[in-house]
Design a protein that fits this description.
Strand content: under 5%
Largest sheet: none
Number of domains: 1
Helix content: 55-70%
Distance between the termini: 28 Å
Number of helices: 5
């Protein structure tokens, strides 16, 4: 996976955006909010920082970098998003 560079982002994706996602909700807001309810503040802040860092580090190849990191585990297009808009949505929901 990511050798720890994005471990909080990875945990969010792997914990909610998998084949059994409907156990936690049926929309991105429901999934993120259910995950957020289990987080402590430091984890939430770190996840936000990791998303921003991932976006910045991969600005010229965001789709490819996301696919390299998560592969078939999470596809933003299945949620009617681009990679950029998916990550922006995660940041928005985690910031609320």
């Amino acid at each position: 996976m990511n050798n720890g560079a994005y471990s909080h982002l990875e945990q969010l994706i792997m914990a909610r955006f998998h084949e059994d996602y409907s156990l936690y909700g049926n929309s991105i807001p429901e999934l993120v909010l259910s995950y957020k309810a289990e987080m402590i503040e430091d984890e939430r802040v770190t996840t936000l920082e990791e998303i921003a860092r991932f976006q910045k580090a991969n600005a010229n190849c965001l789709d490819r970098a996301f696919d390299d990191l998560f592969g078939c585990r999470c596809d933003p297009t299945l949620w009617d998003h681009t990679t950029a808009s998916f990550l922006d949505e995660l940041k928005h929901l985690l910031s609320e």
